[in-house]
């Protein structure tokens, strides 16, 4: 079968409503005036990874469940506008949605609507096998349908990556994904010892590379048994929102990984893309392009 897809992105399609608040945590009050407006746009973790991969020139296909609702149409429209192939499986419970409270410093607090899904939700096995068979790599979101998809992906022989987000290093649900993936991303936010967690991921699973992103403090990289620190890079413009920075990091890292770059170079690409994402307002969906990424990488070398 022809490998006409570079990366198949599983899960993580949805819609966010963005609310800029005067501070986080937000003190209790009867009401707040939101002068920047309250805006709803397509884009959750799978959408942002797919967007980042496509912007870097990788042939990208996104597979997830979507509702026949206004939120689902926003997601479909985003993929149409950006030329990203989308296979949408009907979701009677509706399209995933969340509310993001964004503080003045760009930090966010996300409120996820867990009613739009059920533990027994599945991606159709025949569709999953067909798309995985056409793909060089699969990036898996940590949603319930994707958990059920892991055995099929392992049988297909395709390489896998996943993002554990703010895992605490203990929750067994996340560990299932960590053990199944060849490349693992995780936020260091809730990890008391990121290096120890990365070594545990590699020791218990099949990961050849594991990365713990730490925002302005850079990242921790474990590759070939060696643990190193990756410095943060200076954003090219003022930081306005951290939403999507981790997804941008993962997309750019995978761009380097699939092009045969060494892990340290992949991590530099990730840091540059993550820094770019922090300069994009949360009401927009934008990603660094291939030429821009390579130019900034060359500048970092210099």
From TrEMBL:
One of its GO terms (molecular function) is kinase activity. PROSITE patterns: PFKB_KINASES_2. It holds the Pfam family PfkB. Residues 49-285 form the Carbohydrate kinase PfkB domain. Transmembrane segments: none annotated. Gene3D superfamilies: 3.40.1190.20. SUPFAM superfamilies: Ribokinase-like. It comes from the Bacteria. Keywords: Kinase, Transferase. PANTHER family: RIBOKINASE, SUGAR KINASE. This is PfkB family carbohydrate kinase. It comes from Streptomyces cinereospinus.
């Amino acid at each position: 079968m022809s490998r006409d897809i570079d990366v198949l992105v599983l899960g993580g399609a949805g819609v966010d409503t963005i609310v800029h608040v005067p501070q986080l945590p937000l003190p209790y009050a009867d009401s707040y005036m939101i002068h920047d407006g309250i805006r709803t746009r397509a884009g959750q973790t799978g959408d942002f990874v797919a967007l980042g991969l496509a912007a870097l020139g990788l042939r990208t296909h996104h597979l997830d469940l979507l509702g026949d609702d206004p939120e689902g149409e926003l997601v479909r429209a985003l993929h149409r506008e950006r030329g990203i192939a989308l296979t949408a499986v009907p979701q009677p419970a509706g399209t995933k949605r969340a509310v993001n409270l964004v503080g003045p410093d760009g930090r966010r607090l996300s409120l996820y609507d867990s009613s739009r899904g059920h533990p027994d939700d599945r991606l159709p096995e025949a569709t999953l096998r067909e798309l995985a068979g056409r793909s060089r790599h699969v990036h898996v979101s940590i949603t319930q349908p994707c958990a059920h998809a892991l055995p099929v992906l392992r049988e297909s022989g395709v390489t896998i990556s996943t993002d554990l987000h703010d895992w605490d290093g203990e929750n067994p649900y996340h560990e299932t994904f960590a053990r199944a993936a060849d490349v693992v991303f995780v936020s260091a936010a809730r990890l008391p010892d990121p290096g120890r967690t990365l070594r545990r991921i590699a020791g218990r699973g099949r990961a050849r590379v594991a990365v713990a992103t730490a925002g302005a403090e850079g990242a921790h990289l474990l590759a070939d048994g060696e643990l190193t620190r990756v410095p943060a890079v200076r954003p090219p413009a003022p930081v306005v929102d951290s939403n999507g920075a981790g997804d941008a990091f993962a997309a750019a890292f995978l761009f380097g990984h699939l092009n045969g770059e060494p892990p340290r170079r992949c991590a530099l690409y990730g840091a540059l893309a993550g820094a770019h994402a922090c300069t994009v307002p949360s009401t927009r969906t934008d990603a660094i392009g291939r030429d821009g990424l390579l130019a900034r990488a060359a500048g970092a070398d210099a």
